[in-house]
Structure prediction request, 154 residues.
Amino acid sequence: MPIGLQILADWLSGRFSKGRSGNNPKPQQWFLILVAIGVSICLPKLLGPIRIEKQGYRDAVKWLKENTAQEYLIAVPDSRIGFYAERKTVVSESKNAFEGVDYIVSLEKDENAKLPGVPETRLGRKEGRVVQEKQSLWLDKRRKKDRLIIYKVL
Prediction:
């Protein structure tokens, strides 16, 4: 990477100093400018918390540990949720695939997957089961794109 930056700095120096006199940046100055630009682009990610985009999973695990009993069976989209929550889980992306679960953790890619303020939603038309939304968490609070929704099967 430093060699590439040096080649780019030499090219910029040659490109902008042709036919001009005065205080045009030299190749070393172009190199430092390019390094400063690279550092300023990478610095926010470098200084931010590690895996901040997965904070929603940690929040869901904490909620499940605090609000569910050890013997409950939980349907989850990712097996790590059950592992860290120390609960028995069944892995599924579908909300209507399992019988006998007590809670369902659903990963919703669409922000309008469930209308806000509606306390109950039908879960699986064939089974006729009813669930109640207990918790809704953003995976990444800054981007607010994907949500984890925790349902209690009634």
User: Anything to note?
Assistant: The first strand starts at residue 73 and ends at 76. The chain has a mean pLDDT of 77. The radius of gyration is 26 Å.
